[in-house]
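Researcher: Structure for this, please.
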Amino acid sequence: MKIYNTLSKRKEDFVPLEPGKVRMYVCGPTVYNLIHIGNARPMIVFDTVRRYLEYKGYEVNYVSNFTDVDDKIIKKSVEEGIPAGEVAERYIAECRKDMADMNVKPATTHPLATQEIPGMLDMISTLVEKGYAYAAEDGTVYYRTRNFKGYGKLSGKNIDDLQAGHRDIQVTGELKEDPLDFVLWKPKKEGEPYWDSPWCKGRPGWHIECSVMAKKYLGEEIDIHAGGEDLIFPHHENEIAQSEAANGKPFARYWMHNAFLNIDNKKMSKSLGNFFTVREIAERYDLQVLRFFMLSAHYRSPLNFSADLMEAAKNGLERILTAAENLKRLSGSAAEGDMSAAERELYAQTDRFVGKFEASMEDDFNTADAVSAVFELVKFCNTNASAANSKAYLDALSARLAQLCDVLGLLTDREEEILDEDIEKLIAERQAARKARNFARADEIRDQLAAMGILLKDTREGVTWKRA
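Model: Predicted structure, token format:
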């Protein structure tokens, strides 16, 4: 298996630190709002990497954090007049729902930054003791960037060029020894959440959080560290500087980064009005379609999101699901018994599709080519399965298709569609509950229908509904 390593700028054979086990850290979202489709790409991509590693027999310890203390969270808490912790808690729950709807498996551990403050204080203290960090007069603790000789090795940035031209990591203020030094701990401002520390009452800088959580849950040296390419610099560069200086050993063997997602060939931004949350996409498509769309391109290639491409993804996924349903339908009325010799020969031919699928995934997780192999298997199933076949043969084809789809996180078992009359009954019950001022029951029914893919809209004329 080969992985493109951002650190070495080339594909390398994957050799885990411990045979049969993989330690993997993926930077998670900052939870101050609903996640957007840009957040969804790394979630889907690296969940698929994890699934393939597990398919190959590895035991994967998969850690992905929630950043639950941040300027954006504090800003939101001030706007809403509620504690920052409540904002974070609400959006962690919303994020988990979106992840489940995209069929992203829960991480082995989803650490919260606010629960790991003692570890951060320990690592910062170690960096101070080793001369890699220092406290300024106001209690801010800075990292001495120039003291880490390997700074820039991930991003390819030269520290002297940074000083001369780049301002990516420079923070204004005269308390720093060097303009390139970055914050490990900062003093609290009025109304902000804070923790006690040897330097001041305050909170951690962003970069130290991931270094500490990776160390606690995976160890001082890990196999794979992953995230979006926007994190290469300065976040991942600073993680390396912190972790390697504190621990005295290499931090991660393989660095994986997914490319950006564009909207109609433009960068996604609120100012352009092309900013979509996952929840907004779910109003128009099953999120399996979004997942399938994300896997239609190689993770290191920029991906363009558009209505036409989503429709194409919907149609492509429908081909796979229709083939899976056809196999199950045929199996339901097929004769029991072993495969015939001819069927065994036919089934053996599907090995080549599995081989092509695995070869694609072994080549730096090329999901686009892996999907192509799945389509070849679908075509084979459509051509070589009929009512004349044995149940054993049809079930074997069905299991093979389901197995490859499962690696991609695609569900081949479509849930039974709820009937119109059942929807109307639930809506009537909801209306009665609202009339009786039993709002808890009314909300429960709305959530139940939403989980079934039924979206309600309250209007002056009454309640209208549509299927997502």
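Researcher: Any notable elements?
Model: The two ends are 39 Å apart (CA to CA). Confidence is low (pLDDT under 50) at residues 166-171.
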